[in-house]
Amino acid sequence: MSAQPSYVSTRGRSGAVGFVEALLSGVARDGGLYVPARWPTLSPEALTADGPAATAEAVLRPFIGDSLPEGALARATRRLTDGFDDPAATPLVEVAPGLFVLELFHGPTAAFKDYAMQMVAVLAEAALEASGERLRLVTATSGDTGAAAVRAFGGLERVELVVLHPLGRVSPVQRLQMTTTGAANVKNLAVRGDFDDCQRLVKALLADPRTAGGGRLSSVNSINWARLAGQIPYYVGAARALGAQAARATYVVPTGNFGDAFAGWAARRMGLPMGGIVAPTNRNDALVRALQTGVYARAQAAPTASVSMDVQAPSNFERLLFEASGRDADLTRGLFEDFASDGRMVLPEDLLAALRREVRAVSVSEAETAAEIARTHAETGRVICPHTAVALHAARRLDRSAGPVVALSTAHAAKFPESVEAALGFAPERPRQLEGLEGRAEVFETVDPTLDAVLAALA
Predict the structure, then answer these.
(1) What is the pLDDT of residues 2-43, one digit of tens each?
(2) What is the percentage of the chain residues whose pLDDT exceeds 90?
(3) How many domains does the chain have?
(4) Is residue 54 included in any domain, yes or no?
(5) In what order do the strands lie in the sheet with 405-409?
(6) In this structure, are residues 315 and 27 in contact, taking their beta carbons and an 8 Å threshold?
(7) Strand 17-18 versus strand 6-9 pairing type
(8) Which strands sit side by side in the sheet containing 34-36, from one edge to the other?
(9) Is residue 86 part of a domain?
(10) Contact at 8 Å (CB) between 158 and 125?
């Protein structure tokens, strides 16, 4: 990419913007999501860099160019060594012949969202200091995004963070991570609804000028390109660890909002050797049904043990659809306008075939999730979270003679003690990141799932 990389909207009615605008606005003015105008190719440095910070810096530099002050990217990537409890940040562990787990839970809130969020906070702060602006961030969370955002952005002088989570539908540990920090610049809203309601409200807030409060307005969900791009480097690190096997490796990515899976797609698009991507869901299987039937339809999200995946309208499906259509912005815009008005879209046959070539999706039941937690512990001694169990159960269905299978382990089991205890008969031991949460004062406000209710809470 050039020194000033640019980004375009999936819906084609917003002009190209630079990295800072994509970072600080989150969603394009036409309601679409930003993607690079041209995909960069992974450099030899990115493929051979030593350590997580150097890898992330080499992978992300083409996306940023010289749009931020000197040293901002290096400061951001240092957080991958300063704030993680494993020197590899995201170690790759073989748990059975040809079956690997990519551990993404070694950050400060014990979930994969930490990896990108820690970096994005530094990048946003650098951009705001250079411009003298203030930023209001709004984010929807099914649990882990909110906790990671509060930890990364809490206390920043130029940022106000607003977190919307579905009332009673995140784990108690996840809720406490969001609501007990005491950070003056963080406002937590518990929405009487599901994650899709929270996500819908965030999109409405981003489109409403009343939300900004006199400053910039953006989101740190994976609808924000910088947040999503920040997840690409750990795929590069995993491929380096696999060595000669990397080109045949299949990555199994437990999927809620499809951001983590799209980051893997982006890594492959940039030239990373990879065999394929499988996106398992829980019973909230909108993506599975879309790829099976060609109809992408909204439904009420059902509560499951893997609460962070209780999503029935994954935002990043729009990016995949845009790319699979040959970057047909008119088609993408029309389909998502149908979805917004009718709650469903019918995928043209050629587009459906193209989507099936890009990713596979499967659904994993609650019984299978619990059985996988028990099986993994019995066979390996590892205690895994329900989301990791979804990935591992799907991974075991694949033919490992064709190449290694890498399941992404997205959170520490101790964030979901009730589900793990139900499967194993004992609660998982807490890592140091999760100690001392109980007993702290919680601060949050409960609101109805309407734009007016949320705006009133922010007034």
Answers:
(1) 468 999 999 999 999 999 999 998 889 999 999 999 999 999
(2) 89
(3) 1
(4) no
(5) 92-96, 99-103, 405-409, 250-252, 276-281, 360-363
(6) no
(7) antiparallel
(8) 17-18, 6-9, 34-36
(9) no
(10) yes
> Can you give the pLDDT at residue 282?
97
User: Of the candidates 173, 148, 427, 142, which has an alpha carbon nearest to the alpha carbon of residue 302?
Assistant: 142
Given its phi and psi angles, is residue 175 left (phi above 0), alpha (psi -120 to 50 degrees) or beta? alpha
3-state secondary structure 20-80: HHHHHHCECCCCCEEEECCCCCCCHHHHHCCCHHHHHHHHHHHHHCCCCCCCHHHHHHHHH
Give the pLDDT confidence of 123-171 residue by residue, as tens digits: 999 999 999 999 999 999 988 899 999 999 999 999 999 999 999 999 9
Structure-token pair, residue 294: 């060609």
DSSP one-letter code for 346: E
321 located within any domain:
yes
Identify the pLDDT of residue 1. Answer: 41
Q: DSSP letter at 201?
A: H
Q: Is position 6 within any domain?
A: no
Encode pLDDT of 348-369 as tens digits.
999 999 999 999 999 999 999 9
Three-class secondary structure assignment of 276-334 = EEEEEECCCCHHHHHHHHCEEECCCCCCCCCHHHCCCCCCCHHHHHHHHCCCCHHHHHH
pLDDT score of 214: 74
Query: What is this structure's pTM?
Result: 0.93
Q: Which residue range forms the structural domain that includes residue 252?
A: 92-110+228-424
Q: Which amino acid is at 127?
A: A
Across-strand partners of 1? none
Residues sharing a CB contact under 8 Å with residue 161, sequence separation 6 or more, in sequence order: 137, 139, 149, 150, 153, 154, 183, 185, 186, 187, 220
By residue count, the chain amounts to 459
Nearest alpha carbon to residue 143 among 118, 114, 120: 114
- Structural tokens at position 151: 């930890």
How is residue 381 written in tokens?
A: 């001694």
Strands 6-9 and 34-36: antiparallel
What is d(CA 355, CA 349) in angstroms, rounded to the nearest whole number?
10
| CATH number reported for the structural domain that contains residue 361 in this entry | 3.40.50.1100
**Residue 99 DSSP symbol:** E
Residues 187/226/242/432 CA torsion (nearest 10 deg): -20
Low-confidence ranges of the chain (pLDDT < 50): 1-2
Residue in the block written with tokens 């591992």: 392
* Beta carbons within 8 Å of 63's beta carbon, 6+ residues apart: 1, 5, 19, 36, 40, 226, 229
Catalytic residues: 113
